[in-house]
Design a protein that fits this description.
Elements: E1 2-8, H1 16-26, E2 31-37, H2 43-54, E3 60-63, E4 77-78, H3 80-85, E5 90-94, E6 97-101, H4 104-115, E7 126-130, H5 134-145, E8 149-154, H6 157-166, E9 172-176, H7 177-180, E10 189-192, E11 218-221, H8 230-237, E12 241-244, H9 246-261, H10 267-274
Parallel strand pairs: 1-2, 1-3, 4-6, 7-8, 7-10, 8-9, 10-11, 11-12
Antiparallel strand pairs: 3-5, 5-6
Helix pairs in contact: 1-9, 1-10, 4-5, 4-9
Amino acid sequence: MIQLGLIGYPLGHSLSPKIHAAALKACGLEGTYSLFPIHPEDKQGLKDLFARVRTGEIRGLNVTIPHKQNVIELMDELTPTAQAIGAVNTMYMRENKLIGDNTDVPGFLADLKRVDKETSTQVNKAAVVLGAGGSARAVVYALLNDGWNVTLAARRIEQAQQLAESFSNYELQVTEYSSFIFHLSSFALLVNTTPLGMTPNIETSPLPENTVFAENAFIYDLVYNPRETKLVRDAHAQGLNAATGLGMLIEQAALAFEKWTGHNPPRELLYAAVK
């Protein structure tokens, strides 16, 4: 019996149990995927749970907010990706070491290339990323390593500058949220990493009303609840391709599952589990 799970706080609306239950079934494996809501100040709770991973009782864990950074000090080793973005979303044992990994980065890129076939052949590789929180770190790192010219637009400019400094080996532009809108027509890709538009505030958007996107731009909204956000709806109304972050959620989960079990679950069955 394979035991897997997710740590975070709170965890009331997570889709991960449905996704991983579908993955276990599709791969013919017996197992469970449990939620472990651990308060951010409960360090002992984290240590006790990780001890169960070390003994092999739990095969692997996903990590979500607010723990993606604060579990780092409890890992024996970080993968290069987790090290680079300073966040862990997947953990497992390898050669008697507790490994902190991050599948958000490859998960985002895999889904972006799935939903927008033109990104891989895009001549204008100019992208703007809205927000400068933890999700933005993974997206920015993924895009920079895929050859994109990235501009970071955030309301808290100090937070954006800190993020940029942590990627000082790359060319990363930072701009205030209010000013990038005037240059929106120059971006082939816009990625929203803010929570604006998330349930229950489904009529909000990170962009002002009647914003005009670049012709042939692709709009990617990390928010996946609701299934079609206002940002995605507005992009579709202008005849543009757009997607929510449900695909990224599926991809990062599938990649984590493969690291834990060695099985690569069929994506269509994972999608079906959360439709």
